[in-house]
Specification:
Strands 5-4-6-7 form a 4-stranded antiparallel sheet. It has a two-stranded antiparallel sheet with strand order 1-2. It starts with a helix and ends with a helix. The protein has helices at about 1-30, 75-85, 90-105, 105-120, 130-145, 155-185, 200-205, 220-230, 275-300, 310-325, 325-345, 350-365, 370-400; strands at about 35-50, 50-65, 190-195, 210-215, 220, 235-245, 245-250, 255, 260, 265-270. The chain contains 13 helices and 10 strands. A hairpin with a 2-residue loop joins β6 (about 235-245) and β7 (about 245-250). Among the domains are: about 75-145, no CATH class; about 190-270, Pdz3 Domain, CATH 2.30.42; about 275-400, no CATH class. With about 400 residues, it is of the alpha+beta class.
C-alpha cells in the first residue's frame, strides 16, 4: 500500500507540473488541444471549447498538448501521410504539394494544400491505421501553421507557458511546507511525544504524553525546558510533570551527548502562525534549492555520484516516509516537487529549461532556429538524462 501511495504521489507532482503548463497556456492565448489526468487510453473524455479533457487508464501524472511546438517541416508531412500514399498512390501529388509548401515556408499555400489533401483522402478507402495517421497529420500541421501555434507566439508568451510547469511545482512545495510549519514549525512544546529506550528519561519514569511544567520548582516554557536541560552540566533535575490530570515530581539526570546534555525525549512541536509559516517555507525552499544546485554542480565535476537516485529510489524513499506517517510523507513529497522543478529548469532540451533557453535565443535573433538544431541538441539532452538515470538506477540497485 505504501508503494502505491508513493507512486500516486509522484504522479500527482507530474500532474501539477502539466497543469501549470495548461493553465498558463490558456491565460496567454496558446490554447492547448488536450489535457489529460493520467495517460491514454482514455477512460472518459469530453470536448469543451476546442479542448479535449480526459482521464487516462494509466493514473500516473498527466499531459498537455500545446499546438505547434515546432515549426513544421516537410518530413512531418512525409511521416504522417506515407502510409496513406502507400495504400493510395493517387494521394502522392497532394501530399507532395504539402511538403513543398512547408519547405518553401509558405503557410497559406501549405494550408490550401492540406485542404486539397483532405478532400482527396475523403475519396479514398484506407485502412484504419492509415486513415488515423493521415487525420492526425492534418490536425497537427494545421495547428502548427495556425495563429495559435507555440513557435509563432511572442517570446514572453512562450516563456510564460513553459516556465509555468516548474513554477507550479515550486508553488506546491511552498504550500506543503507552509502547511507543515503551521503544525510543527515552531519551538518544541512542553509535552513529551516519545521517550528514547534506555535513556535517562525512561529510567526516571517519564512517558509519552507527560507535560513538563516546571524545573527545580520554577515554571518553564517549551524553549526554557530545553535550555535548562542543556545547561544542567549533568546534575540531577527535578521536573514537575502533569500526567492524566495529576501532578508528579520526577528526578532525572541528563547524560552528556555529542550535542550537549540530553535526557532522551522528543517533544511535540508548536505550529507557527500562517504568515510566519509561509516565511519559513520560503526560507527552507531557498536553502534546499541552493543545496540541489550545488549538488548538480558537484555531479558535473565528477563528485556526488552516490547521491543520484532513479524513480525506483525516489519511490522507495517516499514509501518509507508513508510508513512513518503523513507529516514525514508530506516533507518528502515537497522536496521531490522542488527537485522536479529544478531539474526541469536545467538548460537541456527537451527539458523546460532547454525550451526557455532556446526561446530566449530566438527572441534575441528575431527568428526561429532550424528544426535540425532542436533535434540535435535534444539528442544530447536525452543522452545526458539517460546517463543520470543509469547512474541513479545502479545506486538504487546497490542500496536495495
Amino acid at each position: 500500500m505504501s508503494v502505491a501511495i508513493a507512486i500516486l504521489g509522484l504522479g500527482l507532482l507530474i500532474l501539477v507540473h502539466e497543469a501549470g503548463h495548461f493553465a498558463a497556456s490558456l491565460v496567454v492565448g496558446l490554447r492547448p488541444r488536450r489535457f489529460y489526468i493520467g495517460f491514454p487510453p482514455a477512460v472518459v473524455r469530453v470536448r469543451r471549447r476546442g479542448i479535449e479533457y480526459g482521464i487516462g487508464a494509466i493514473p500516473l501524472g498527466g499531459f498537455v498538448s500545446i499546438p505547434g511546438m515546432h515549426r513544421p517541416i516537410p518530413h512531418d508531412a512525409e511521416r504522417r501521410f506515407a502510409r496513406a500514399v502507400e495504400e493510395a498512390p493517387a494521394l502522392a501529388g497532394p501530399a507532395e504539394r504539402v511538403a513543398r509548401a512547408l519547405a518553401g515556408d509558405e503557410p497559406e499555400r501549405a494550408l490550401a494544400a492540406l485542404d486539397e489533401l483532405e478532400q482527396a483522402l475523403a475519396e479514398r478507402r484506407l485502412s484504419p491505421a492509415a486513415a488515423a495517421a493521415a487525420a492526425k497529420g492534418l490536425t497537427e500541421l494545421r495547428d502548427a501553421l495556425g495563429p495559435q501555434a507555440y513557435w509563432k507566439a511572442p517570446t514572453w508568451k512562450r516563456l510564460v507557458a513553459i516556465a509555468a510547469g516548474p513554477a507550479a511545482n515550486i508553488v506546491l512545495t511552498l504550500a506543503v511546507l507552509t502547511l507543515l510549519f503551521t503544525r510543527v514549525g515552531g519551538d518544541p512544546s512542553q509535552t513529551i511525544a516519545s521517550v528514547t529506550a534506555g535513556s535517562p528519561a525512561e529510567r526516571a519514569g517519564l512517558r509519552a504524553g507527560d507535560r513538563v511544567v516546571a524545573v527545580d520548582g520554577q515554571p518553564v516554557s517549551g524553549r526554557e525546558l530545553g535550555e535548562r536541560i542543556l545547561a544542567s552540566g549533568g546534575r540531577p533535575l527535578e521536573l514537575t510533570v502533569l500526567r492524566e490530570g495529576r501532578e508528579l515530581t520526577v528526578t532525572v539526570t541528563p547524560a552528556r551527548t555529542e550535542g550537549g546534555y540530553r535526557i532522551g525525549i522528543v517533544r511535540e512541536a508548536l505550529g507557527l502562525p500562517p504568515p510566519a509559516a509561509a516565511g519559513r517555507a520560503v526560507e527552507v525552499t531557498g536553502i534546499v534549492s541552493k543545496e540541489i544546485v550545488l549538488s548538480l554542480g558537484r555531479l558535473a565535476g565528477g563528485q556526488g555520484r552516490e547521491d543520484v537516485a532513479s524513480p525506483i529510489g525516489i519511490t522507495q524513499i517516499s514509501s518509507d516516509a508513508v510508513e512513518e506517517g503523513v507529516e514525514s510523507y508530506l516533507w518528502v513529497l515537497a522536496l521531490i516537487s522542488l527537485s522536479l522543478a529544478l531539474l526541469n529548469l536545467l538548460p537541456l532540451l527537451p527539458l523546460d529549461g532547454g525550451h526557455i533557453l532556446f526561446t530566449l535565443i530566438e527572441g534575441a535573433r528575431g527568428r526561429v532556429l532550424r528544426r535540425e538544431v532542436y533535434e540535435r541538441v535534444s539528442a544530447i539532452g536525452i543522452a545526458l538524462v539517460l546517463v543520470l538515470f543509469v547512474v541513479g538506477l545502479s545506486n538504487d540497485i546497490g542500496r536495495l
